[in-house]
């Protein structure tokens, strides 16, 4: 009996060591890449001549458009407001010299893909950034108090990722080369009360992305999902930046160093550390889940629906993580 117990404890000990080793390897990989960029500067350009970015008119999508152009790619900008797209196109062409195409499309609709397909015809697309997304409520709100138009959120956050991937992946497959970056959110890593539809739509992006990477890795395609927390953009009403809240430019520049790190990343070291902290709290206890407990406590303390109409500064501390 004593021997069995001893073996059991050895087994448990080894298991705990293994879990910590895996966490440590993931963390060190991120630190390593932070200081010693592994993918050479030419890597992104080697994927193909063109990069396609959805939701390119502002925020993170705009930052990807500029950065990928700086890395030597021509860019296709797809978004809602043509004036914003035209201004970005002109600036890229003048300051960087890359070619730019713009496509006006509203991703809350599902009848736009034939038009986009036609516009993308004959381009050698090496990179697709599925960035477009909408957050129905910036401030926390109960599900029944969120806008009725759930279909728009589903089209914009879910259908866009699937349909754009379907359009472009088949050409990448035949070239046996390509990079797809799917912008999910830290809100996908745990179920976030008061952001339920957004959080669930982003969890879809994570699962879809990781399953697809397993299918297409052997064919030379890199599919990576990014799960950032707060980034200062119009979506987050330009939250003040700090060690955690990045500017879109900082976030994009750093995240492009990590495209070969694996099928999922937060995109920046600060957010990676935050996730590890969440996971370690989650890992230590099993019942009740302390992360969910914390979230539920916040929900009851914040009295969410009363926040609406408060000045931005007073609301900032309520929106630390969700984006
Ligand atoms: N910001 C964050 O803290 C954060 C954190 C985690 C994940 N994310 C994710 O990152 C992505 C980009 O976020 P962001 O903060 O950069 O967003 P943003 O500031 O709201 O910018 C979004 C861009 O997408 C365009 N867009 C929005 N809805 C569209 C639609 N229905 N059809 C076509 N274009 C549309 C906007 O068009 P207009 O130019 O016409 O306005 C804008 O150019 C989203 O998927 C978001 O969920 C953001």
Structural account:
This protein has 323 residues and is an alpha/beta fold. It has one domain (34-319): NAD(P)-binding Rossmann-like Domain (Rossmann fold), CATH 3.40.50. It is built from eleven helices and nine strands. The strands form two sheets. The protein has a seven-stranded parallel beta sheet with strand order 3-2-1-4-5-6-9, with helices on both faces. Helix 1 (2-35) runs antiparallel to helix 9 (269-284), helix 3 packs across helix 8 and helix 6 (150-175) packs parallel to helix 7 (196-216). The longest helix has 34 residues, at 2-35. The protein is globular. Residues 306-315 have low confidence and may be disordered. The protein binds NADP nicotinamide-adenine-dinucleotide phosphate. The site of NADP nicotinamide-adenine-dinucleotide phosphate has 30 residues, from helix 3.
Each distinct ligand: NADP nicotinamide-adenine-dinucleotide phosphate
Number of strands: 9
Give, in order, the helices and strands.
Answer: HHEHEHEHEHEHEEEHEHHH
- Alpha carbon gyration radius: 21 Å
Give the N-to-C terminal Cα separation.
Answer: 53 Å
Please, what is the average pLDDT? 88
The structural class is alpha/beta
CATH topology: Rossmann fold
CATH H level: which superfamily?
NAD(P)-binding Rossmann-like Domain
Q: Counting H and I runs of at least 4 residues, what is the number of helices?
A: 11
The 3D shape can be described as globular
